[in-house]
Design brief:
This protein is of the alpha+beta class and about 325 residues long. The protein is built from eight helices and 14 strands.
Length: about 325
Amino acid sequence: MDLHSTNLREASQEPGSPLTQAGEVALKYLEQTGQASKNQSFMIFQHMAEQAEKLGESYPHIEFEAAALKEIVASGSSKDPSGWISQLWKDLEKHQERWAEGMTETARLMGLSFVPVLKKVPGSPAKYILQAESLSESDAGAQTATVPEGGLRYTSAAVAAPGSLVLATLRSGTVAKALPVTIFVVVVLVVLAWLLLLLGWRMFSLASQMNSPVTTAQLANMFLWLGFAVMVYRAFRFVGDLGDLGIVIAPEVMVPFKEDHVTLEVRRSPQDKEVHFAFVRYTGICPVCGGAVLLHDGQKEFTGRIIGRCRHSPREHVFTFDQRLHTGRPLRVG
């Protein structure tokens, strides 16, 4: 295979073979999310997608052995090829669960009907395969919103949910059956609020009975109580916003260390009408300078809103975020 193929960023006028379409979708998705060179795992995926886009008319799937991929991606590594690719491929399999929605969105926008799927075929040596999988009828027939003039489109990528290191079912970024989790969180917050009130009343009662000057220890306790009160208030506000608005910026303590600008969403499954929590990272390409646009809390300037800020010019290249249509229009572009 030619190792120096050229990326195709837009779908051709006539859709190619299923494998060619899958390769085009993968390359477009990696470009939109800025993950093509994120690490060696994504470099493997990038190369296999390039081969699928270029050679898809001639092959049913793209197939590599570990030694060939290692020579392409990490020729200077001294590791055994099987040991080198083992963890990298596991990481790709985890990411594959999370990028399903984003790949589907990308395929629809490009007018294509196939998405890439990675598989490992056991053997001696094992084969690492990229093949094409067709969209379901509901996915293929879904309508996409038009990008506003001067605006952009956001591409989604799920992020591992809290506890994914313990429960593998959470690594897709979804917390199923949100109702029990919600009830538990609300109960904990109510208990904390009652403790806060009791501590405040106790402090007030003791202070009203004192005839001596206020001590440093008492001032320290008061400030601790105020800090605790602010934390409980913010927690109540966070839960309230999530319930009312359906989406909030997830606190950093709830997402993996390597991820940032992640949203926490409430989603309803159309099949069983069950409510789920989803951790999703949205990325866009700035129409002004081509930088990556990531989501931020609007804070005081854009109170109550989630907005997109360009990494190259976060103060000037600012966009709205439509959580339903995944599009944004300019709020400030210099």
